[in-house]
Amino acid sequence: MIPRGEQVYSRFRGYLQMLSVALVVLVADQATKLLVMLELGPTGDRVMIPVIPGVFRLFYVQNTGAAFGIFEGNSMVLAILAVLVVLSLLIYFRQWIAESPWLALAIGLQLGGAIGNILDRLQHGFVVDFIDFRYWPTFNVADSAITIGVIILAISLFKREQRRNAAQKKDVEVIDRRPVT
Fold it and tell me: Active site includes 176?
């Protein structure tokens, strides 16, 4: 059994990791959006910055919808929905965050990204998108963090389930080896 103080420290460490990741994502997201708005936004001097001509460019977009432009014009509803999703993730995974640095990373990425986009919606009424690969919808740092966080979360949950199934199988094998009386 783990001593109580060690449990508290472990949980604290997991939450600290998660919040640190979220803060880094939030700062990176808001800083890049500010730079894009100053350089490419309504008051900017340029319309776009080609990075790899014909493939990748920085291009200012005001996104009032969700991913791929769905639910366009519902910025406040999407902000409320994002808050509910973030709170749900924190409540549901609160125990596991302390146990897994990968889960702390996954939730931190999603939390930082969601807060970054929520701040945009509350401040501007839209999300600033600017990473444009021409063949894919324009996105931002927050969207990237959320996507990577979801992928890490899915892998973590899959591996957790595999370990649980292996442990159950091992328990069954031990039980099956006992002599029948």
Answer: no
